[in-house]
Amino acid sequence: MPTIEDVKAFLQVHGVSVLEFVEATPNSEAAAKAVGCSVGEIAKSILFIVGNTPVLVVTSGDVRVKTSRLKREGGLTGRARLPAGDEVVRYTGYAPGGVCPFLLPHGLPVLVDASMRRFPVVYAAAGNEHSAAPITVDHLLAITRGIEVAVCE
Known about the structure:
By secondary structure, the protein is of the alpha/beta class. It has helices at residues 4-13, 28-35, 67-74, 85-92, 137-144; strands at 19-20, 42-50, 53-60, 80-81, 110-113, 122-124, 131-135, 147-149. Strands 1, 2, 3, 4, 5, 6, 7 and 8 form an eight-stranded mixed β-sheet that branches. Strand 6 and strand 7 (131-135) form a beta hairpin. The chain is globular, with a radius of gyration of 14 Å.
């Protein structure tokens, strides 16, 4: 499991700093309060299992993923579900509440929702539930090798 120090070192190479907080940031509302931004500016990372395929969706904290769009945009079939905590760790390497889009296991698809384009900078988790990394959507796409999609309402 990557540590906050691993993520900080990775992001530093890419010119991204990591903010750390005393208060926990395990969800969009708490992260927005800690950062001092709107909930929409939080880039939440949500793991879905579609059929038997894990996929990480990164989207604005103020929107919901529409699973029919997720399946269509991701070319996926089968029932979409949210995984149990142990599955989150197995597929992402991070515990729930600290999932971030960086240093993920090879082969885990990262879908970045276009809803974040409303903001010049978004704040993604950085490896634990006390951190955030300010980043542009284009930079997020580049360093995660993510695919931009429209899966939210």
